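Hello,

Following up on my earlier ticket. Below are the two sequence lines again, exactly as submitted.
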Amino acid sequence: MIEVRDVSLVIQDRAIVDGVSIDVPEGQFTALVGGNGAGKTTLIRLIKGIVVPSAGQIVVDGTSSLGAPRDFALRIGVVFQNPETQIVASVVDEDVAFGPENLGLPTAEIARRVERSLKLVGLWDLRHRPVHALSGGQKQRLAIAGILGLHPKYILFDEATALLDPAGKREVLDTALTLVREGIGVLWVTHDLREVFGAHKLYAMMNGRVVFQGSPAEFLSSSSSLKAARVLVPDEARLAQFLENKGVAVEWPITRQRVLERIKSLSLKTSS
Amino acid sequence: MVGHTGSGKTTLAQVMAALLPPTGGKVRLWDSEWTYPRELPLELRRRIGFVFQFPEHQFFAETVFDEVAYAVRNFGLDNVEGRVRAALETVGLPFMQFKDRSPFSLSGGEKRKVALASVIVFDPDVLVLDEPSAGLDGESKVEFWNWLWRYRARGKTVVFITHWLEEAARSDKVIVLSAGHVLFYDDPVKVFSHASTMKRIGLEPPLAAEVVYELQKKGTFPWVLDLDKLLEALEEYALWP
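Thanks for your patience. The regenerated structure is below:
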């Protein structure tokens, strides 16, 4: 488990992150939402150890990350927003091999990790493809595979779907859910609540502070929290609420598929 | 303008904005027809604004103020500070709080807002936006749409690219691109009635469109594209248990 304990980051008298405590357990999908400039990306940089907190501590698997040995950093991977800026090699399998090679692992072990990582993200069949020929969603999955090659226990996704088309968004989210089932702890940052209805736990940030923690369903029913996190209630959730008020309940977590199934069960006053 | 990744949206948008010359065909802007952007008189080119997809690729100034003021100074317009202040307030960034910050120190969403401010600051008559709402939080998206709507009401032309078809459904006309071709160019209701084609080319139709599509198989149900109207129509046309 990653335990963030009362962490702050103050730069030029401005608290960008202000006394934040959150948990990212293994094998769970944890969601983080909040408006532009709320401190989400800075919190991710703090957890990864790119910046050092002004106060508080980050405990990973029972050990404080401050002053921890180098291999400690390998337990946590980060997937960023832009698919164009996270890939180092020109061919898919070489990109995944880059990390393990830099750890000085034996050739056979590198090959084993490349195969396993690419299979987990569903890119094994494209392993010889040039990187420039991949779609945005495939590039993000390659970035994930590059992290998996380092055997992380936790992966932090910083609006990793924001720049992708709908098919790409689904691919990356599905990959993250697969990794959760494999036991990896995922922290998922987004502005799109539809992506996190199934989350084990949701945190919302505003002005550097955590202003809500609880289940996605609780969050959805708290209008003050929704406002603080500057998120929109997805159409799927509004329609599900309408249907429920009419006595046609939609099973949680709400998905477009589930809403449409309920719609299909309706009858019209003037049927054809 | 909508379409899957690689369908040609950004390229077409850059041609429209006189940033790229087409290898065939011509573009007409007001009374000027051109193939090479330089054939377009400078005073017309100054009436076109383009906001790129990746704001961090277009920043170069040391402060948000200088970044937004660049076009104003470059075009020799008056009242630099007033215009910069108004542009920043329009995108929801308080002037005093942001003017002296480095654009590179901002969050992803704030960078997008500064990129938008740096273009709307010279009040272009044609505004072309490459995925302007990607990365904006929900409230900022609503504020942006409201502003865009007021801009259109002033007689301006707005072209914007999006992957979010709920957003496209608010426009006057929708262009759907697929593999470099225009698949549809029509009113949103007509375009989104082709729900199965939308899905086939990797686009997610607005939820309301998918609901209408299902219900029209069953009987009489009107075409609506936004959720409020859908809920009203469900109230009126559906039989409830």
